[in-house]
């Protein structure tokens, strides 16, 4: 479960990075 949560958090981080750029 923690692995999936970590993966989702990374995906969100990536999306935020995209918006930031």
UniProtKB/TrEMBL annotation:
<feature type="region of interest" description="Disordered">
    <location>
        <begin position="1"/>
        <end position="21"/>
    </location>
</feature>
<protein>
    <submittedName>
        <fullName>Uncharacterized protein</fullName>
    </submittedName>
</protein>
């Amino acid at each position: 479960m923690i692995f999936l949560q970590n993966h989702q958090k990374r995906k969100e981080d990536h999306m935020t990075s995209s918006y930031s750029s």
